[in-house]
Structures are given as C-alpha cells and as structure tokens.
Specification:
By secondary structure, this protein is an alpha+beta fold. The chain contains five helices and eleven strands. The model has no long low-confidence stretch (mean pLDDT about 95).
Length: about 180
C-alpha cells in the first residue's frame, strides 16, 4: 500500500474526477485540502456535521484517509467519526464534529474554508466498492449523472460496479 503522489492524483482527478470541482491551489503535498460547503457555527459541546464542498470519488482500488486541518484542533474542534473513505465511495464527505473549546466559545467554519486533508491510498485485493446508503450523499442530479457516465463509459469500472444498484441508491440518496 502506498499514498498517491501529486502527479498520480492529478492524473486520476483529470480522468475520473476523484475531486470535483478541483482547484490546483488546494493540492497539499501528496493530498488535497477539501473545503466547506456551508457556514457552520458550533457552540460549546454542540455536535454538527460539516459537509465538504467537493465531491470525492474514491476509485475501487483505493481508500482515502482524512485528517483535519490542525488550526481547528487548536481551536478545540474534535472529530467524532472515522477518518476513512471507503473504496468506491462517491459523494460529499461529512465529518461529525463537536466543539470542546476550553473557553467555551463558539467556533465558526466558513463556506470555502480549507477544512480537511484527504490522501488516497492504494489498496490490495479484489475490489469491493462501497454500496451503502451514503453513496452519492449531498450530490445534485447533474453530479450523479456525471459520475454514472464516468463509470458506465469505463470498461474496468463498469465491470466492478453494479450499475442497477447504483441507480437505485442514487434515487434514494441523502440530500
């Protein structure tokens, strides 16, 4: 297993839209910095979900690892959920966070703020892409169509994904 380097990540983004929309200024070493979709303010001990602006497509032969920008940890923001994105997942990333600020002050995260690092890690073994209820979460119809088109027109992906099941999941996705 190995972390994808910048050049390989850019190649996959160009070909498969692994990060969409993509902004080259948000490349960070061997990863990418995802930004925030909407403003979120958390009062002390409050729990909320923070949704990425970008859609992430983790190809079936990769998993992704997430880490928060350290500035939020220094403010007292704590992440409650796992920092892994399953292979085959397509959707906006949702991180569950809680405000544990020592001064008990609110923490605000603004739309467009750089929020979390994502690194793609090559996995070994037969592909078993994610097909759970959060596939295509918080995506528009046009975004879903774009990724269904990418999968349908790539012989390798088409043989791995169950297109009929993906269409059913997409029609019942979390909006």
């Amino acid at each position: 297993m190995a972390v994808l380097g910048k050049s390989e990540l850019i190649r996959l983004i160009d070909k498969y839209k692994c990060i969409h929309p993509f902004n080259a200024n948000l490349l960070d070493g061997d990863g990418y910095i995802l930004t925030v979709k909407d403003d979120v303010t958390l009062n002390y001990l409050e729990h909320k979900n923070v949704i990425s602006y970008e859609v992430v497509f983790t190809l079936p032969n990769y998993v992704a690892h997430l880490t928060a920008k350290s500035r939020y940890g220094r403010l007292g923001l704590s992440f409650l959920n796992a920092a892994k994105v399953h292979s085959g997942f397509i959707g906006r990333i949702v991180l569950e966070v809680v405000n544990l600020n020592n001064e008990r002050k609110p923490i605000t995260i603004r739309r467009g703020d750089p929020f979390m690092h994502i690194e793609f890690i090559e996995r070994i073994g037969e592909p078993y892409p994610y097909d759970g209820e959060y596939q295509f979460q918080y995506m528009s119809d046009d975004e879903v169509k774009m990724y269904m088109h990418i999968i349908s027109n790539d012989h390798n992906l088409r043989s791995i994904f169950n297109i009929n099941k993906l269409e059913l999941i997409a029609s019942n996705r979390v909006l």
